[in-house]
Amino acid sequence: MGSRRRSRESALKVLFAREVSRLPIGEVLELHWLYLEERHEGAEYAEQLARGAAERIEELDKRIQGVSTHWKISRMACVDRNILRLAAWELFHAPDVPKRVALNEAIEIAKRYGAEDSWAFINGILDKLAEDLP
Q1: 0.90 exceeded by the pTM?
Q2: Distance between start and end Cα atoms, the chain
Q3: How far is CA 71 from CA 10, 19, 36, 76, in A?
Q4: Which has fewest Cβ within 10 Å: 10, 22, 25, 129?
Q5: How far apart are CA 6 and CA 46, in angstroms?
Q6: Phi-psi region of 102 (alpha: psi -120 to 50; beta: other; left: phi over 0)
Q7: Which residues contact 113 (CB under 8 A, 6 or more apart)?
Q8: What was the pLDDT predicted at 69?
Q9: DSSP string, 17-45
Q10: Which domains, and CATH codes, for the chain?
Q11: Is a pLDDT exceeding 70 seen at residue 1?
């Protein structure tokens, strides 16, 4: 597994824990590295992703909700919602990450951590989000 994939998976775990625990992102990151996972080559990018998505959660949720015609973000599975947030952050705030890479990585992570059909749901939403990007 590449270091960026590992970073994205770590960031997903952090965002999930943040949502469930309702702790500040800094505290969740500290606990994550202390108890759940050793710092790895991609730890810095994982923190950038997790902090970026957490700091812009309202903006990201609005964007996701804007293209989710039949789903309220609050009704989405927690894993799916956080995969979408991370991918949306990369799409809109990480210009060094190609659009296709952000989408493909989110789909692969959804296949690993989401429900059986999560990847298709996530793919549909991210395709709509990415339509207007260069």
Answers
A1: yes
A2: 28
A3: 26, 19, 32, 7
A4: 22
A5: 8
A6: alpha
A7: 9, 12, 79, 83
A8: 83
A9: HHHHH---HHHHHHHIIIII----TTHHH
A10: 3-130 (1.10.940.10)
A11: no
